[in-house]
# Entry
Amino acid sequence: MNKLSTAIMACTLALTFPMTGLAANAPKNGLTATHQEYHITGNKIVIKLQPKVINNVTMVPARAVFEALGFTVKWDEKKKAFHAENGERETDFVIGTDSFFAYSTHSLGMTAPTSLGTAPVTISGSVYVPVGLFRIILGNENAVVVKDGSISINGDKVSKDADKKGTEIPNPYVSYNTVEDARKAMGVDFAVPSLLPKNYKQDVISIINDTEIKMAQIVYQNGDNKLYYRVSQNSGDISGDYNEYETTKTVAIGELKITLKGNKGLVSIASWESNGFNYCLMPDSALSVEELQAIIKSII
# Structure
């Protein structure tokens, strides 16, 4: 299993929007935007950043970009929650949760919660988010352009209908009624668990299929507890969870090497690769090593 990619793209983030609200020095409040310089030429603001590529998703420092766009940001250390607003539009997201949306400050309109393929993550004190989040907050798919090693975000390209109630941003996940339907949609006969923890039942079956990643996800649920199962033919970490855990270890099941991550003797992520497939199990309520091993044995 490849470890978290720390590849750094040597590119410039060019933000074309009015300069109103530009923060030349980001306030601290628990977050920093590292490797950051502001350059202003006319009405074009250029921020030199070092984005990260995680799970084939381009990630950028949230505070630096939001503040350059004129947003005020707040960080809740206890909840690991990030809030940004500009008097018109707002958004909230939580570290480790791959769900993004935007809502209007003045009305009830809200976009549909959307997965972007990777959850927000803290790296060296900075919160990184998928650059696609800014398509959601600006309400326009054309507001973000990633091309030829550079990223452009145009804050002028805000949809006039972005705040209407019921407005939705396209969700890369497509749901299916059966595993067989999902296999056909993905074009491969991927394996699924035949053994689950007590009282867990299959809930949502979906496929994410875009230019960056193709992956199946099945959610198993027991009350408020969920177990996420992901399988893909893409390499790298497909968990979308890049939090730091107390323990990372490798265990053997037959000839397979399984990477386990967790705290206090329990497991929050189990991942492995086999026969061209990349697998991941993620219980939101951590399970024992023995429970995860039993599930994995039912898959392989």
Remarks:
- DSSP finds four helices and 23 strands in the chain.
- The radius of gyration is 20 Å.
- The CA atoms of residues 98 and 119 lie 4 Å apart.
- The chain has a mean pLDDT of 76.
